[in-house]
Amino acid sequence: MKLSNPARKWGLCTAAAMMAAGLLAGCQGSDQGASTTGPSAGSVSASPKGEPVTVSWYIRKPIETMKDQEAIEAEANKIITGKINAKIKLSLIDAASWDDKIKVMSAAGEPFDLMLSPSGNSFFPNAARGAFMPLDDLLDKYGPDIKKKVDPRAWKAVTVNGQILAVPAQTPYSNPESFVFKKELTEKYKFDAKGVKKLQDLEPFLETIKKNEPAMIPMLTTAKIAIAGTYTLDNPTILSMLVYHEKSGKIMLDFEIPENEANLRTLSDFYKKGYIAKDAAVKTDFMAEAKSGKYAVLRDSGGYTEDGSKSSSLFGFPTVEALYGYPTIGTTKMVAPATAISATSKNPELAMQLLNLVWADRKLSNTLAYGLEGKNYTVTSGQGTDNPTILAKSGTEQTWAIWHNWLGPLWEQWDSNWNSTKSLETMRKNNENAQSSTILGFTVDSEPVKAEVAQLSAVFAELTPIFYTGSMPDYDKYVAEAKQKLKNAGLDKVMGEFQKQLDNWKATNK
């Protein structure tokens, strides 16, 4: 990726709708699933003997009830100090103050070492203003385990002006989308759910439910999460409703892409026929609606499983799933999350050694993630091995959690109630099955049009719930009015600027 002005402050704007899922991830290559008990031979060189050097790591607080940090760090440091003569010190920052805190620290030149970038909206602005240290040489010298396990495609997403600025995590780059059905209803009406490949295929079942199940709502779609099949999956998001159309090579409004338009018209027709709740556009809590059990057709719970087990477990009733497809992997998905070394770090070599050790040593990464045995989790089988099955505390009892993909090596996660080994393998395969965008590594600089982007974002927020639910009385009239609102907000200027940036990027990234 290339930023037009690296010195610009907060000059990038990226946004992509995604389902919240700190528990998912992806993979590349068979060797990525392999785990080790420590770094590979020669992978790190211990720091000079003497007092261990403290490496600071800033992470956005995963849960509000974090406790026992000192004891967990002490347990982790038993491994770290013996391997590289260093100690880890975590700084857990509240989500609400995260961006401002990091910005102020960097601007003040405050020394610190590692920093999580939990999203593209965190990575790109910091990269633009020079907050991160280039990692190419450090990775070559001290990061062999990282280089072995990171999806090779992901390096493009964190490369700015020819330099790698962060380590991308193993994470769900492409969550497959699926249609989900209440199993009892498909059996009752002998409906072949697996035969559904697109939105239009749902109509016979929706019609049946509407006629015969008055207590049921045929289909769930909400203001924030659309039913699978609403949009095609091969066009990565540039900014909210602006996407890159892979076929034409142009930035377009998502509802103007011909395939999407056909689906959106179908959704509007479904709404008129009563297949969708009349107040769907004001429903914002997808999970509460899904778990209510009053919908016959839903979307997946964050990733397709062939046997329906994931949605069945999360929604609380037996389901059948039909795969819709795998989204094309865009830049923002591969930098969420990533870990960078601060440009103010006084110990960048040791910081990279520590990060590599987290990727290499399974005991270390799982201790940082799960906490302490007997306090934060219990071992249910495999005691004393490098691959136990555990039960981690959750809900109100949970007092420690750092999601594995925030640390980096999700595939090294122990089998648990967070993720089973089977589900991790499914996630790895999901990433492998997905294609990456032809413009992987590109992101937009919104600084030249920041006023217009702010105006457009407000309009997008107004339009999205209506498009997601099909709840417009007259489709053509609504679309015409939407286009005029967007035009008035500066759409032409923004699209012209972003297309120019894209064309320039393509010219230098052939």
Sum up the structure in keywords.
510 residues; alpha/beta; five-stranded mixed beta sheet; four-stranded mixed beta sheet; 19 helices; disordered N terminus
Detailed description of the structure:
With 510 residues, the protein is α/β, with parallel strands linked by helices. Helix content is 37%, strand content 14%. The protein contains 19 helices and 17 strands. The protein has helices spanning 69-84, 98-107, 120-128, 136-142, 144-149, 154-157, 183-188, 203-212, 258-272, 286-291, 309-315, 331-334, 348-360, 362-370, 404-407, 421-433, 450-469, 475-488, 491-508, and strands at 53-60, 86-93, 114-117, 159-160, 163-164, 167-168, 177-182, 217-219, 237-239, 242-245, 250-253, 295-299, 319-325, 338-341, 377-381, 389-392, 415-416. The strands form five sheets. It has a five-stranded mixed β-sheet with strand order 2-1-3-14-6. It starts with 52 loop residues before the first strand and ends with a helix. The model is unreliable at 2-47 (pLDDT under 50).
